[in-house]
Structures are given as structure tokens and as C-alpha cells.
Amino acid sequence: MTKRRITAGQFAFLVPLLLLIAVFALYPIICSVVYSFFDYRTNDQTAAGLYTSTSFNARLFAEDCGYIAYYLDDEITLLDGADKAELEAVSADAGAMENTYRDTAKIGRLSPAEEEKLGRFIDDTVARINLVYDKNQGVSFYNRDKIGVIADEMRSCIIKSNFTGFAAYEALLRDTRFFDSLGHTVLFTAVSVALELVLGMVLALIMNRAMRGIGAVRTTALVPWAIPTAVSALMWSYMYDGGSGVIAHMFASLGLISSPEVMLLSANGAMAAAILADVWKTTPYMALLLLAGLQIIDRGLYESAKVDGAGPVRTFFSMTLPMLKPSMLVALLFRTLDAFRVFDLITVLTGGGPGGATETLSIYAYKVMIGQSNYGYGAVIVIAMVLFVAAIAFLFIKVLGTELISDD
Right CATH number for 172-399 from 2.40.128.20, 3.30.1160.10, 1.10.10.10, 1.10.3720.10? Predict the structure, then answer.
């Protein structure tokens, strides 16, 4: 069968979709890739940008020179003779440098010669001031400590290149916390998705039956999925609370845990709590996807199987399960990708604790990027997550044979 080519008019309808994909999908990925090659940290002015070569914050340097001159004017009033003249000369030199760079662009590239010149000026200025301070130990200067702070700020105005190449990726391979987070993510994903598949299949089979009140059953079953994840996580955190939590006390009375406090304060208990909350929340979603697959199976096949003497178990494994395979694999794909990126549920429920026992890759990336303002290394973690997600999608689509898009 020959495939028709898309026309210009048909392509015009796709342009808004392509723009949305470019802005909200491709652009963040491209930015993450670029950031991963730099030591980009917003809490450090020397790394708060992407600098491929040495740069210079001229305006801040001019302000620092002005502060040097301002503070020295106070010190000059305490001296006389040669020392006073020396500080006046240093103040004049600082004022001249301020005038030189006051109207220069805020941040620009710095040549090696200019870098050497500025470094020499800073060192000479500090040395000359300290020499006067050392010669007058008995004088109570006003700004001796401030001068040293300003000198350090002046040096920070010379911004070295923070391009690191693949160094951050090499550091990631030695990052034990990253691999711990990966292990937590895989454990959470595998257990929660497996339980959701089994329970979702049971729920889908129940909702697929033609019986009185099935509409109310379907509506009630979908309520947990309709609740926002943050709200359901907060609700479960109350039920897991060691002091008054219903679920925690029930598990303790059944002997599943040693005490109610263990539920969220131990590594195994916190992970089990997160998995249980996720299973309760998303099993209806899995059931809904499987129900859609059950709805397209011809009812006549079940009648034929019944006539041939096949029981419910034989019918399920020999007919229902094989015919449900495409829908089941699509449901598994969606849920696996969603569970692998879990963030809000565990953030509200445990915050990644206790002791990082429930810290997933998404939470680790958030803590590095937002908590530590380290966007360079955080981007590396995000890129690693993208690769894992792509590998999962490839596994389901190619290896397991899921046909998500048909040519027909």
C-alpha cells in the first residue's frame, strides 16, 4: 500500500503542535545539555553564567574601586607624613580605575594582558595598604577588615571560564548518591507498577462486567486517580503518622511493623509507604487503560469459548490476556515512565527521607538544582534521567513489540 504524502495545508495544521513541542520539550532538553557542560551555579557570581573564556564584571569592579577610595579617605585622617601621602596615592589610583571602568559594559571578555594588568593592580593595592597598616600598629584604623573583604570581591570580578566539558559526566559515574537514588527509583517503579498491573487487571475485569450498578462502581473506582497527587500524599502522610495515623496503627496491630513510628521513620517503612500510596492513587488509571482494551474484544469469542467448554481461568489466559497484550503494554509503558519520574508524591510524603532512603532521581535533581543552585551538575542528572526514560521507552516499543501508532 502506498503512503500518501502530507500536503502543505495539512502541514499547516501541524505547525502549532510542532511549535509547542519545540518550546516545551526540545528547548528544555537543549538547555539542559548546554548547562551540563558548565559549572553553572547561581549562588556564586563567578559561576552564575556560561563563560567559555575569562570574563570581567567591569561595573562591579568599578564599584569596589570606589569603596576602596571611600574607606581610605577615613584612614587618611588618622595619619600624616609619608604614610598619609601613600594612602592618598592609593586612593587616587583606585579612583582612576573606577573612572576607567564605570561606563564599561557590565560583563565582557577579558584578554590575558588585561587580566594580568588587573590582577597586578589588585595585588599592588592590597600590598601598599597593608604595608601602611603594618607600620602603624598602634593606630585604630576604621576599615582595616573591610579593605580585605573588598579586595576579595575585586578578585572575584575576574571570572574564569566555567566550561568543564564532560567532567561533570565523569563525576556522575563516581557519585554514589546518584546510584543510590537510581536504585530507589528502580525499586519504586518496579514494585509499584507490578502491583498496579495486577490490581488494575482485577479492577478492569470487574468494571468490564455487565451488571446492575456498574456505572457507580466505575465512578467510585476512579476517585483516587482524580485526587491531585499532592493532596493524596498529604492525606496518606496523616494516615501514616506514628502518633495518630490510622494506617500506621493498623499495620502495627496486625504485626506488619514493630511500632507505628516505623512507618515513615525507617528506610523500608518509608519506601513501602510511598509505594502503597502510589498504588492506591494510580491503580484506577491502570484499570482504565486495561478496560479500554477489554472493551474492544469481541463478546462472541467468549460465547464460543464457553460453548467449547473453556472455564474462566482458561479463557483468561488463552484468549483475554493475548488479545489484551497491546493495551496492557501501552498501559505499562505509560505507568513505568510516570513512576520513574515520580516527584510530588514522595516530596510531600517523605521529602526523600529518612536519610535519603526514598530519594529518587527527580528529587535528587531538584535538591541539586534548586536547593544547592547547582544547575550545571543538576542538568547532568536530568540528562541521565532522559537517557533512562528513552531506554525504557525503547524497551517497551521495540523489544516488547508495543505498537503505539498504526499506519492504517
Answer: 1.10.3720.10
d(CA 383, CA 407): 31
Give the C-alpha separation, 77 to 87, whole Å: 10
Arithmetic mean of pLDDT over the chain? 87
Q: Which three cell numbers stand for residue 298?
A: 469481541
Residue-wise pLDDT tens digits, 105-156: 777 888 888 889 999 999 999 999 999 999 998 888 888 888 889 988 999 8
For 164-207, the pLDDT digits (tens) are: 999 999 999 999 999 999 999 999 999 999 999 999 999 888 88
What are the sequence ranges of the domains in the chain?
55-159, 172-399
DSSP string spanning 357-378? TT--HHHHHHIIIIIS-BHHHH
Q: Does residue 318 or residue 128 have the better pLDDT? A: 128
Please answer whether residues 123 and 13 qualify as being in contact, where contact means their C-beta atoms are separated by less than 8 angstroms: no
Separation between Cα atoms, residue 149 and residue 252, nearest integer Å:
58
Look up cell 576604621; give the residue: 142
**C-alpha separations of 298 from 108, 403, 404 in Å:** 70, 20, 21
Q: Which helix (H) or strand (E) holds 206?
A: helix 176-207
Q: pLDDT-based confidence at 211, cuts 50/70/90?
A: low
Quick one: which of 185, 219, 386, 203 has its CA closest to 287? 203
Q: How far is CA 125 from the centre of its chain?
A: 44
Dmax (CA) for the chain in angstroms is 117
What would the grid cell of residue 183 be?
Answer: 536504585
Cβ partners under 8 Å of residue 79, min gap 6:
87, 132, 136, 139
Q: How confident is the model at residue 401 (pLDDT cuts 50, 70, 90)?
A: low
CA distances from 248 to 230, 236, 282, 348 (A): 20, 10, 21, 17
